[in-house]
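pipeline: protein-struct stage 2 | run 1193 | Thioredoxin-like fold domain-containing protein
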Amino acid sequence: MTPRARSLAVVPALLLALVFAIAGTGPARAGELVVFERKGCVYCQRFERDVAPLYGKTDEGRRAPLRRVDVSQGPPRDVALAAPVRFTPTFVLVEDGHEVGRITGYASDEAFWGLIGALTARLAPARP
């Protein structure tokens, strides 16, 4: 392939990237569930055992994938929290970098699924 042909092959990808940038539908995730954890947290371990293996396979997990954060490291720079996180686990639903809502603590898988279902209903509809 000649150098000119190689440079022309890049044009469609650049045009597609430009369309995404203009439309605002780039690679940023619409929602995510930021899980603040602490080493040795028994309730974090229960969540890990009861819910985490299934979460990504659910509608909630597809709409708001898990992102794990050690609470001792502080909040991620790209997340604007409504209030500080003091207890673990704390599950913060984030959309476009801003907190939508949170679940503080973990009592059981049944309680978690009910609460996360109500929270993810607050997210903007998924883009086609």
